Amino acid sequence: MVTNFTARAKNRRSLAQKERWKYGEKLQAADSAWAEQALRIQDGRQDSLWQTLKERGYIHQVAGDEKELERTMIEKRIGVYAGIDPTGPSMHVGHLLPFMVLLWFYIHGYRAVSLLGGSTSRIGDPSGRADAREEQHSSVRKANMASMHLQITKIWENMEMHARERHGYKREAVWKRALVNNNKWWNKLPVMEFMHYAGSLARVGPLLSRDTAKRKLQGDAGMSFAELGYPIMQGWDWWELFKQQDVQVQIGGADQFGNLVAGLEVVNSIIPKVIDAKIEPEKFDKNSTRFGVTVPLLTTSSGEKIGKSAGNAIWLDHDMTPPFELYQYFLKLSDSDAIRFLKLFTLIPLERIETIAEDHQKHPEKRLAHHQLAFEVLAMVHGAPCATQVAQEHNALFGQKTRFPMPPKDMIGTQYPGDLNVKTNPNATPVNAQSLWSYHASLPRSLVRDQTPARILFHAGLVGSRSEGQRLITAKGAYYGGETGMEKMSASEQNEMPDELKFVVIKNPDVEFSEKMIIGNDTMILRTGRTKVKIIKILEDDEFDRRGLTAPGWDDFKSMRG
Ligand SMILES: N[C@@H](Cc1ccc(O)cc1)C(=O)O
């Protein structure tokens, strides 16, 4: 018995060791492949990724020496990051551009880090804005943060799937991506450490001479200390990512150039100071250089900012902008915009885009380029099945004339049906908010107040019945988003809590416990299993009815109440 057991354990150990060796071998192979690729690029046999990015129109400005950046990218699998502040519940089309650049880096073997600015969003980036952002209530902020976190996770999954299935990129062990929230360090960074390492070296002069600061200082409201310091905060983020993960490049929108330059200075000045003080283990490469890269500010040929249609934002959340509308947005672009955006918002190789453009010229009324563009973007944002279905719906509605073109056979993976021109099944459920998994829901207050957690899970649509909810809670498989220790605080103290979103097991089946799950007065974040999350807005009953909403069990509840 005992020998048997130790033999098995030994066996397991050696298996694990073999796995490690295999992984090590893979990394070694990746290293030599990288070196060979560098040779091919230097001999002119292959384009560098930097050249590709430039040709496709992604590069607006570079903070730092461009030649050195290109060289560094050839030599080394550097880390790259782009950040976004969750000031709203969803990204819009314009936000996609920096993420497209991250995607290109990622599928070419570089480390891609997406940063969610939980802390920076509390200050609000003043870049390019005249007004100060209004401080949001903590429940709104948390809901936005959770919502964007889920959205970015989902979009990355879709983007990766899309790159592999449709564009033939092969996943390698060296492909690395991460999503980090800057709350992770801001929630525990002592003010003194920040002031000492970043604050004492940052110069106020350059910060004050930026256009944003000048404009603000002329206005009545002036500029707050926090807003002035925002670029230093963003710079500190870079420092954290640099020292933790060797992130040498930051990508941002056209309005981020000033922040990138400020960030470079922050990191460059902290490094020698930290080395002097010998407090940081010097894990980072002292001799490496950092670079900032901005993408262009895009406007359509009619002069609108990309992702705005008649002044309204086009959102990536399918509740806020239904997928069909998102598809339509791309169909309505001018011909030249459609071609330009194919280079920016898809992974289609440039040579193929040229062919598409030629075909488009021959039959402009078919809007071939537009359909390709719309389909590709939808596949990355909402997934291939959704993109396919929307394309089919469009065909069914508008018929032959604007049919979605069949993708060439070699571009089709298992997620993609071979013939997208198949007749739409008239009984198919249309792609709407309901048929896609949605992480937003509203509930009337009566379905939350004095209800057990099991019932709330049911009303929120996370489980099929109350008893299923009860079983899940007993099995510790249901969670609520909140903060540990929160329950001991008064409401006003809660607002001042740092808001790193944590999920806590729903461990008590009683009504009183439900109260703890409410953030602020009107928000609840629930999770079942690993990934199913609902961000719930609690409305007063009459408001809920007035909006024509419904929820599982609501009709029953009302008829019982009489
Ligand atoms: N300031 C950026 C978002 C951002 C936040 C934190 C960062 O570290 C990087 C970027 C913007 O408003 O677009």
From TrEMBL:
CDD domains tied to this protein: TyrRS_core
Domain Tyrosyl-tRNA synthetase C-terminal: 437-555
GO annotation, cellular component aspect: cytosol; mitochondrion
EC class of the enzyme, as a word: ligase
GO MF entries: ATP binding; RNA binding; tyrosine-tRNA ligase activity
Gene3D superfamilies: HUPs, RNA-binding S4 domain, Tyrosyl-Transfer RNA Synthetase
Catalytically driven reaction(s): tRNA(Tyr) + L-tyrosine + ATP = L-tyrosyl-tRNA(Tyr) + AMP + diphosphate + H(+)
Biological processes per GO annotation: tyrosyl-tRNA aminoacylation
InterPro entries from the UniProt entry: aa-tRNA-synth_I_CS, aa-tRNA-synth_Ic, Rossmann-like_a/b/a_fold, S4_RNA-bd_sf, Tyr-tRNA-ligase, Tyr-tRNA-ligase_bac-type, TyrRSs_C
Keywords (A to Z) from UniProt: Aminoacyl-tRNA synthetase, ATP-binding, Ligase, Nucleotide-binding, Protein biosynthesis
EC number: 6.1.1.1
One family name in Pfam for this protein: TyrRSs_C
Family to which this protein belongs: Belongs to the class-I aminoacyl-tRNA synthetase family.
NCBIfam families from the UniProt entry: tyrS (TIGR00234)
Protein name in the entry: Tyrosine--tRNA ligase
Organism: Gomphillus americanus
Lineage of the organism: Eukaryota, Fungi, Dikarya, Ascomycota, Pezizomycotina
